[in-house]
Amino acid sequence: MFEAFSVSLFRRLVVDLRRARRRPAGFTLIELMIVLAIVGVVAAYAIPAYQDYLARSRVGEGLALASSARLAVADNAASGAGLAGGYSPPAATRNVESVRIDDDTGQISVVFTARVAAAGTNTLVLVPSAPDKADAPTARVALKKGAMQAGAIAWECFAAGKQASSLPAPGAGPLPAEAATLPAKYAPAECRA
């Protein structure tokens, strides 16, 4: 009885193996084409978003390099000296071409390389301002070379498209003397309009 059972089991296995050989293995051409189309659509959206993300992270490097310039302007404004005095600009990097201070106004211009944005559209401007009076301020005024400032300096960032100051009371700050040209999509939120 055991022999009859094992023979019938063996015959069923052989029949199943023959059927398995006849069935096609793998994916059909239409299934592969559908998968490729889905991957293409996802890549069409993901690649530009990733490139924008990379550019925004590179802008962060420029803002970090500008921190020493901000400190130099604040020190010089407190002492009434020329606003760019004693500042040594950092060496150019792969992402940041230059960081420079306007000696008369203390405005800092960060110029990025073509890895961030195309030439001519790659400048971010940081504008300092101080209250007009130390005890009861009514407005924010631009820093001036050789003048002692009345209070704490506030910094405002400008990218392309930002046309007005967004500083809170006691009033809006000054606008940049040099046009900011970095596209807003690459700039931090506080630099956008």
Brief digest:
With 193 residues, this protein is an alpha+beta fold. 37% of the residues lie in helices and 15% in strands. The protein contains 2 helices and 5 strands; from the N terminus they run ααβββββ.
Structure description:
It is a single chain. Helix content is 37%, strand content 15%. Strand 3 (123-131) and strand 4 (140-142) form a beta hairpin. Strands 1, 2, 3, 4 and 5 form a 5-stranded antiparallel beta sheet that branches. The protein has one domain: Glycoprotein, Type 4 Pilin (2-Layer Sandwich), CATH 3.30.700.10. The protein has 193 residues and is an alpha+beta fold. InterPro entries: N_methyl_site, Pilin, Pilin-like. It comes from Burkholderia ubonensis. Belongs to the N-Me-Phe pilin family.
- Overall mean pLDDT: 86
Kindly identify the CATH topology.
Answer: Glycoprotein, Type 4 Pilin
Considering DSSP H and I runs of 4 or more, what fraction of the residues is helical?
25-40%
Biggest sheet features: 5 strands, antiparallel
Structural classification: alpha+beta
CATH top level is Alpha Beta
Question: Could you say how many structural domains there are in total?
Answer: 1
Give the helix/strand layout.
Blueprint: H1 2-22, H2 29-79, E1 96-101, E2 108-112, E3 123-131, E4 140-142, E5 154-158
Antiparallel strand pairs: 1-2, 2-3, 3-4, 3-5
Features:
single chain, 193 residues, Glycoprotein, Type 4 Pilin, rod-shaped, membrane, transmembrane helix
